[in-house]
Amino acid sequence: MRTCWLNGTFLPEDQAQVSIFDRGLLFGDGVYEVAAVFQGRLLDADRHLVRLARSQREIGIPAPYSATQWLDVMQTLATQNSIDEGLVYLQVTRGPAERDFAFPAQVTPTAFAYARPKRLRDDPNAAGVRVHVVPDLRWARCDIKSTAMLAQVLAKQAAKAAGAFEAMMHEDGLVTEGGSSNVWMVRDGTIYTRPLSHDILAGITRDVTIEVARDLGIPLHERAFTVEQVCRADECFMTSATSFVLPITRVDERVIGSGHPGPIAQRVRDGYLARAARLTQG
Q: Which helix (H) or strand (E) holds 37?
C-alpha cells in the first residue's frame, strides 16, 4: 500500500481521509499541481510550486506550507513509494466548513499529496496519438489550476468515447488547449503555440518546451491558431508534466502530416528528455 501525505502527516493511503464538509469536495474550492519524477528525483517542482502559490493567491487560499516544505514532502513521497519515473500530485483546498458559498472565517486549508509511477522515457504514446475536437466549456479563469474540472472531465470522456487519447478544446474554432495539456503545431519548420492569457493554463512543460526549442534553434511563435490550421499542419504535438512531449498524428479522422511523429516533434521530445536526465542525474 502506498504512502500518502495529509496535513503534515505521512500515512497509508487507506488512512488518508478528509471531512465530507471539505470545500474541495463540496465546491471544487481548491487548487492543485502535478510534478514529474524522473530518475527518482523531482523535475521542475520548483516551477510548479511557484504556480501553486499563484493559484492560491488568485482564489484567496492561505499557503499552509512553504515551497521548501512542499519539496521535502514531494521528494519523500517519491522515495518512500520507490518511484523512478512517475508523478507527485499535490492539492490544497480551502478546508472544511459549513456549506455556504462565501469564504468561511477561521478555516484551516486541507493539504494532500501522493505519488504514483508512470512511464515517461519510453512512453508508448510517443509513437503518436489521436485527439478529439470538442468545444471548450470551461470558465473564464483557466490560468488558475483549479480542482473544479468538470468541463475537462467531460472533454476527456468525449475523447475516450471517440477512441482518442486526448481532447483538443476550441472556442469558436480557435484552439485553446488539450483536456490536460498544451497543444502545438508546426508549419514550414516553425513551432506555434497559443500565447498565455486567462484562456489557458500557463503550462510548466509549455515553458520548458519553449526553452528547449530555442536551445535547439527551432523558430517558435506564440500565436493562436485554428482547428483547421492544426489539421493542415506539417506536425502537431502536445505537452504536459506527465507525458512531456507527445506527437499528435491524427485529429479525429484527419491525418496530420505523414501520419507519423514528425522530425521537429521528435527533436523537441529528445531535447526534453535529455534536459530531464541532466537535471536529475546523480
A: strand 30-38
Mean pLDDT of the chain: 98
145 is catalytic: yes
Residue 277 Cα distances to 64, 85, 248, angstroms: 32, 11, 24
Band the pLDDT of 9: cuts 50, 70, 90: very high
CA pair distance 182, 202, nearest whole angstrom: 9
Contact 113, 16 (CB under 8 A): no
* pLDDT at 212 > cutoff 90: yes
Question: What is the mean pLDDT of the segment spanning 112-127?
Answer: 97
Give the model confidence (pLDDT) of 67-103 as tens digits: 999 999 999 999 999 999 999 999 999 999 999 999 9
The CATH number of 124-280, from 3.20.10.10, 3.40.50.2000, 3.90.1150.10, 3.30.565.10, is: 3.20.10.10
Q: What share of the chain has pLDDT > 70, as a percent?
A: 100
Q: What is the CATH number of domain 3-117?
A: 3.30.470.10
In the chain, what are the domain boundaries? 3-117, 124-280
Neighbours of 139 (CB within 10 A): 10
Residue of 118, 145, 156, 160 marked catalytic: 145
Query: How far apart are alpha carbons 107 and 69 in whole angstroms?
Result: 21
Distance CA 270, CA 8 (A): 37
